[in-house]
DNA sequence: CATACTGTAATATTTATAGTTACAAATATA
DNA sequence: TATATTTGTAACTATAAATATTACAGTATG
């Protein structure tokens, strides 16, 4: 199972970019996502750590973008929500006495590193504004 | 959690390519992977469906490559073990009355499709022989 | 015919992800 | 200043996916 963090975070950012200057509540956002507002707040906490949004507590509070939508790329969202993409590793430590077992994870790591560079390259070219404008 | 199928399958193929013509038992392979032989046999079943290997039952049985290692690419392994790579979707169906909720999954799908094309392009250029030769 | 394999179903275990409940703290505004 | 509304977060529960195990029928070898 792959986590929905990237999709959820991008959904939140798209909504925020459609309402710049407004503070959107986690309740409002969670209604669009059809999910629990607490989970939305958790993803927002991550966006705050990365200085992409700011929140205001209390009545009429909520969250708004701190940065211009043209200034946030999908790669920023990717880096915020994934360590990196992989095609996975076997769960157990392979046999270190086997030449293949000993090196397989390192070789896979190299492969995945290249993959992530390519993905980052793709995502860097798409700003939140680009993405949101297709809606 | 991401499944280890790709890594496990590639590990198996690497071992087989190091012993062409020999039938390797699931017991032997599972010792290198340090995992249960039944799981190895399940991944081998997948390789057989894809005509990459053949197995022989009974005493001295096991599995061997059907194709030349230079003729199998990592993209073949990828296609065999993943539907496709994604950065995920939110689990619940988003609100269809919200313009963002209504279209987000389609837009994400487009993004991921591009991503998979790039990944496939990378993996097509690496044969099992290329990969195994680095060990 | 004994041994050593594969094939596969059924079940159990482990782990990751998602969801819920509860409540303290903050803020607007009546 | 009292009330309503909202964030922040911890603790816990539930669900789902991945992995592991057990068991045994079927098959080939020598």
From TrEMBL, chains A, B:
It comes from the Bacteria. InterPro entries: Tscrpt_reg_Rrf2, WH-like_DNA-bd_sf, WH_DNA-bd_sf. Pfam families: Rrf2. Gene3D superfamilies: Winged helix-like DNA-binding domain superfamily/Winged helix DNA-binding domain (1.10.10.10). One of its GO terms (cellular component) is cytosol. GO terms for molecular function: DNA-binding transcription factor activity. Transmembrane segments: none annotated. This is Rrf2 family protein. It comes from Flavobacterium caeni.
